[in-house]
Design a protein that fits this description.
The complex is a heterodimer. Chain A is an all-beta fold. Chain A has no helices and eleven strands. The radius of gyration of chain A is 14 Å and the shape is globular. Chain B starts with a strand and ends with a strand. Classes of the chains: A mainly beta, B mainly beta.
């Protein structure tokens, strides 16, 4: 079953604009991670934010986490055509010694040159 | 590039057949997880292997099975293939730490399986 739900399902913007994607989840988490996937290929890890963190930056990426609302957002600033991809949030909500990620359905981002 | 490799890249099988997919972990990692990604969906956890034993399983039937070898590489086996098994199969390696919080997984490029 999918834990996270990304919003919007699809987003189309012009190069140079900012892109914001949101993710909501249902259960408590250890951390939340964002991944990028190009054209049905492997997933590329973008950023991990722990449950006790509220904001994290990595280059042009900014991630926020609100555990009270069970939501996260990914902001990509000054977008480029190469940012065109599907973006997934994934939660680590496993307990004990088992570790797994639960993914949402993703947001398809298209950046037009 | 994550250092995680998978083979083959693409595979076509017919219903009822069996398939084996392979994954080589990133150097230094001791855990391998397998995910199934249907078209237009997010990846779904199949199972994880740690120290050559299954360490957690998602909602998949027993005809999905796996192995982890001493060099931490892994195989995913699917018996009695069904049309709905058509998907991208991703493996991810990580270093298992008993303290949860920073378990980052590194994904391979995937194997595209088509069942006719």
């Amino acid at each position: 079953s999918q834990q996270g739900e990304e919003d919007p399902q699809a987003l189309s913007i012009q190069e140079g604009e900012n892109a914001t994607m949101n993710c909501s989840y249902k259960t408590s988490i250890n951390n939340l991670q964002w991944y990028r996937q190009n054209s049905g290929r492997g997933l590329v890890h973008l950023i991990l934010i722990r449950s006790n963190e509220r904001e994290k930056h990595s280059g042009r990426l900014r991630v926020t986490l609100d555990t009270s609302k069970k939501s996260s957002s990914l902001l990509i600033t000054a977008s480029r055509a190469a940012d065109t991809a599907s973006y997934f949030c994934a939660t680590d909500n496993s307990g004990g010694s088992n570790y797994k990620l639960t993914f949402g359905k993703g947001t398809l981002l298209t950046v037009n040159p | 590039e994550t250092g995680v490799t998978q083979s083959p890249t693409h595979l076509i099988k017919t219903r009822g057949q069996q398939v084996t997919l392979r994954c080589s972990s990133q150097s230094g990692h001791n855990t391998v997880s397998w995910y199934q990604q249907a078209l237009g969906q997010g990846p779904q956890f199949i199972f994880q292997y740690y120290r050559e034993e299954e360490n957690g399983r998602g909602n998949f039937p027993p005809r999905f099975s796996g192995l982890q070898f001493p060099n931490y590489s892994s195989e995913l086996n699917v018996n009695a293939l069904e049309l709905d098994d058509s998907a991208l199969y991703l493996c991810a390696s990580s270093f298992f730490a008993r303290v949860a919080g920073d378990n980052e997984q590194f994904f391979g490029p995937g194997t595209r399986l088509t069942v006719l």
